Amino acid sequence: MAFPLPENGVSYEEKQTSGSDSPAKTRRRKHGGWRAMPYVLGNETFERLASIGLLANFMQFLLEVFHLDQVSASNVLNIWGGVTNFIPLLGAFICDAYIGRFWTIAFASIFEMMGMLALTMIPWLPKLHPPPCKMSPQCKKPNKSQMGFLVMGLGFLSIGSAGIRPCSIPFGVDQFDSTTDEGRKGIASFFNWYYTSFTLVLIIAVTLVVYIQDSVSWVLGFGIPTILIFLSIVLFFIGTKVYVYVKPQGSIFSSFIQVFVASYKKRKLMLPDERESNGVFYDPLLPQGSIVKKLPLTHKYRWLNKAAIVMEDEVNTDGTCTNKWRLCSIQQIEEVKCILKIIPIWSAGIICFTAIGQQGTFTISQALKMDRHLGPKFQIPPGSLSVISMITVGIWLPVYDRFIMPSLTKITRIEGGITLLQRIGIGMVFSILSMVVAGITEKIRRNSAITHSSPDGIAPVTVMWLAPQLVLMGFAEAFNILGQIEFYNKEFPENMSSVANSLFSCTVAGASYMSTLLVNLLHNTTGGHGHPDWLTNDINEGRIDNYYYLIAGLGVLNLFYFLYVARRYQYKTRIVVDDGIKGYADVHELHDMKY
C-alpha cells in the first residue's frame, strides 16, 4: 500500500537511489531547500517544545497530582520511556517500506496531539485525577480508570514519537540535493540550525513551561504545549506546496532477514580459500549514481559470507539474482555485519545513560526536599534544574570545537582530535563521577534533613548543591551521547541512516528498562528488620545515596567491558589529517587504527 503524495503541480524526476536496480521517483527540486525550512524547522521546534515542555516536570506531576509514590512514579516514567524509545524502529520500518516520511510525520503528529490533549484533561477534569490531599485525611491513590486514562495518553504520545523521531531529520535532509555543493552545504547548515533550535527549545521548556506548571497551573502548563503541537501540525501542512517528497523505497530490514535466511540455507557449504574466491561470491555493481560506498568482503562473521556463494541457476543473464532468499550480495552481507559489530558498543551505552537519566527522576525527588528559594519569593522549579546540564553542554561544545579540538588534531592527526570511541569512553567516566558526586551530595542533604527535623522534611541546604552532579552529567552528555550519535551515523552505511538515528533511541530505551529493573529490585530486597528500603517514599528515611553508588559501581564494570570491545572494534572509515590536509582511509588500509 502506498499513500498518495500531496499534489502541488510539481512533476516527478528520475533519481537513482542506493539499493535499487531501477530509478526511484522523487519530486523535481523546483522547491525544497531553504524555502521549506521555515515549515520543517518550525514544525520540529513547536513539536519539541510541546513534548519536552509537557514531560520535563512529569515526575513532580505524578508525585503531587497523581499521588504516586516515587518508586511507582519512576516505574511509570521508565517503562513509558522504554516503549517510546524502542518504537521508533517500527516507525522507521513503516516509513521506509510503505507510507514515506511526509505521511508518517503527519499521522504521528496527530497522535501526539491526541496524547497531549488527554494529559491536559487529567489536571483539568476532577474525575480524571485523585482529589487533592487537603480534601481528605490521607492522599488517595488514583483508581483504575484514572490510571487507564493516563496510560492511554502516554500511549498516544509513544505512537507520535514512533513516527516523528526517525523521520524529522531525514525529511529535512530530503529538501536538499546532496549531489550538489550547494545542497551539501544546505544539509550541513540544516543540522546546525536543527541542534541550535533543539537546545533553545530545551532551555525554554525546562524553565518557562516548567515554571508555569509548578507555580501557576498544571492545566495551563499542559495546555500551552497542547496548543503548540496544534500549531506545529498547521505549520507542517501549510508547507506542502514547497516540500520535496521522496517515495518509500522499501525497508532495509527485509534485506537483513534475507541475509540470515540465505546463510542458513547454505550453512553446509564450505567457504572457498581466499586465493580461490574470485568469482565465487555474488558482487554486482552498485546502481549508477548511488551515494552508498561499496563495502569489501571481510572475514568477520564469516558464516554470513555463505549467503553470497553463487550456485547454479541463481543469477540471471542480466546479473540479477533469481531468488533473493537464497543469494545475497556482498554489499548486503557487509551491511548486516556493520550492525552486528556495533551491537557490543551499543550495549555499553545503556549503563551510561542510566546514570544520565537520573536527573529526570530521583534528582527531582532530592530537589523537592531542599531549599529552592532564589530570593525571598521565587522558588526554582525542580524540573528546571536539568537546564544546568544543558548550559554545560552549550558552553563546552563551542570551547571544544574552537580551541581544544584543533590542538588535539595537530597532535593525534585524527579529525576531531580523538576517536569517536575515545569520546564515548570519556563520557562514561564523567557519568560514573556524576553518580559518585550525587551520592555524596545526597548523604549531606539527608544528614541535614534528619538533624534539623523540619515538619515538611526539607533540608536547609540550597538546591544548588545539586549543580556539581548536573554539570558532570552535562559533560557525560557532551562526550558520550553526541559521540554515540556521530559514531552510528559514520559507521553505518549511507542507506541505513534511519536505523542509525533510531539506534540511540534504543540506548535510551534500554537505560529506562535498566532503571526500572534496579528500582524494583532495590525496593523489594533492601530494608527489613524495622528499616525502610533504600527507595522508600520518604527519601529522608531511604538511602538514595546507596542507589547512586550502585549505579557508579555498575558504571565501572561497564567501562571495563567497553574498553574490551572498543579495543577490538575496527572502523569502517577513518579521516586522517596530515599537515592540514584531510584524507579518507578505508579500514582495510588502516588495520592498526582502532580504539
From TrEMBL:
Its main location: membrane. The chain crosses the membrane at residues 79-99, 105-126, 147-173, 193-212, 219-238, 339-358, 378-399, 420-441, 461-482, 503-522, 547-566. It comes from the Eukaryota. It is a multi-pass membrane protein. Keywords: Membrane, Transmembrane, Transmembrane helix. GO terms for molecular function: transmembrane transporter activity. InterPro entries: MFS_trans_sf, POT_fam. Residues 1-30 are annotated as: Disordered. GO terms for cellular component: membrane. It holds the Pfam family PTR2. It is found in: Membrane. Belongs to the major facilitator superfamily. Proton-dependent oligopeptide transporter (POT/PTR) (TC 2.A.17) family. Belongs to the major facilitator superfamily. Phosphate:H(+) symporter (TC 2.A.1.9) family. This is Nitrate transporter.
